[in-house]
Structure formats: structure tokens, C-alpha cells
Predict the structure of Alkyl hydroperoxide reductase/ Thiol specific antioxidant/ Mal allergen.
Amino acid sequence: MGFPRTCLALTFVISIPVNSFGDWYILIPKAPPQERPSPKKTPPLPKLTPPKETKPYTVEVKKIFAPDFSIQTANLRKLTRKKLEGKKAIFVFLNGLYTPTSESILLALEKFLKKKKNTVIVAVDINDSDFSILKKFKKSMELKKVLLTADSYVYEQFKKKIKDLKVPSLIIIDRFGFIRYFADKITYENITTLDKELEKILKTLG
């Protein structure tokens, strides 16, 4: 008595990191083999590699140098990439200041920065707000540590480096001037874990 003919298709898994919240897996079928007699015992299909544990909040970016920016803060302080050398810098880009999400992010960053040394946080309103508005907002929110500015051009400079950059978003630069991490999916709900995630990331930068 003959055995039924079967066609066995193997599936390979390619891991492609795509965004700041983890890795996606794409299943690509291999071309089916030519039909042949089935063996007495069909070998088991290979086990698929399980998904990796999701990275916390951000994705690491390797060897991308920060743009040569020059900005003016609400306190009329000029800040350049060169002046930040030797310090860890966190840039947060916001679409407007007077929103619940923007205010919550800035308050969380202000609290986080109180216990940090050699770290600079720059909040950038991409709407080019007037500096009188920036000063008023900074005073009303009691932002003493976070540097505040409004500059759509700086946002565009960083977006040329990180194509997926949206708002609200966050970029971390190491003390050598390289962009090391970014997050472009900051929501009101995950702001509560922001300080813990930043703590983990800054430790990896030494």
C-alpha cells in the first residue's frame, strides 16, 4: 500500500527592529520543494524562535551624530552641541506647551532632573512660540531645571537624523555627541514610567 504524497514548506524567521517599542517578526515562506515520496516518518517542523523581550520604551540608535544645533532658551541662554559635550542630554519635542500631555511630561522631567548630575534636559516647542509665552509658561510650571525653547528648525534638524521622529518624542544624546536612544510614542498613559526608563537608559551610557 502506497503512502500519500505531501509537500513540506519550511518557514524562516527574520528579526527586523523597526521602532522604539520592540522587534517585529516577518514570516517569509521558502519556495516549496519538488514533490517527492514521503518518508516513513515525517520529520518535525523546526521550532520558530520566540519573540525577544520588548526593549523598555525606546530603541537604541548606533553611531548617529547629533546635528550641529544652536538654540536660545527662554532665559536667553545660547545652547549648542559643543557646549553639551561631556554631558548627557535629553531633548523632548512637543507640539504645543499648554496641553495635559506636554505639562505632564515636563513635570516628570523636572522631578527626574532634580536628582541627576551632569545631565541636561531641553524641551523644544516645535510651534515657534513667542519667548514671552515661554517665560510665562516656565514660571507657571515652576520649571527650574528643564531648559525651554521654541524652535521648529531644530526639530527638523533632528528629524533628518531620525526619520521616524514625531511628536511628542524624546531623544537621548551621550556625552560624546551621539544620538543613542529615541522614543516617538510618548503618551499620557506611559508618562508615569518615564523616570524609571530614563534611569535605566542613562546608566547604560556610563
